[in-house]
Design a protein that fits this description.
Elements: H1 4-11, H2 14-19, H3 28-40, E1 44-51, E2 54-64, E3 67-74, H4 83-94, E4 98-104, H5 108-116, E5 120-125, E6 128-133
Length: 138
């Protein structure tokens, strides 16, 4: 909960909202409710990446149907420095199950991050590109 405000700030960043399924700005109350639900959900893992002790990004893994869907964002102050690539790759490397991501068409930076983690483009539907990396046993 200590990261509530910084996570909300990143979530409400215009570029982050443009890349999200839900483009609406979230209120503090909505975000606090979401974070409480996230932290109590056993099928969701939320990580905050730090650089020199300062929060710089977040990556989330949602488990359902035998796979993990990853989503991520970084603070606008450090975009373009490879932080998202490193934090997503670190988490993906620890997951042996199938990993997937839903990325909006035009978000080439996130598409490259997914591919860097071994995910392959599978298909596009309604402006969303679907990426997947099979489990270690597939």
């Amino acid at each position: 909960m200590d990261d509530l405000e910084v996570l909300r700030e990143w979530r409400n960043d215009p570029l982050t909202r443009e890349a999200s399924h839900n483009k609406n700005e979230v209120t503090r109350e909505e975000h606090e409710q979401w974070l409480k639900a996230t932290l109590s959900n056993p099928n969701r893992q939320l990580y905050v990446a730090e650089e020199n002790g300062i929060p710089v990004g977040t990556v989330r893994a949602d488990f359902s149907d035998g796979s993990y869907e990853l989503s991520w964002t970084v603070t606008p102050k450090v975009r373009g420095r490879g932080i998202a690539k490193r934090m997503v790759a670190q988490l993906a490397s620890q997951i042996k199950d199938t990993v997937r991501a839903e990325i909006k068409v035009g978000n080439t930076a996130s598409a490259r991050i997914a591919e860097n983690c071994g995910m392959k483009f599978e298909y596009e539907k309604d402006g969303v590109m679907y990426y997947r990396r099979p489990s270690a046993g597939e």
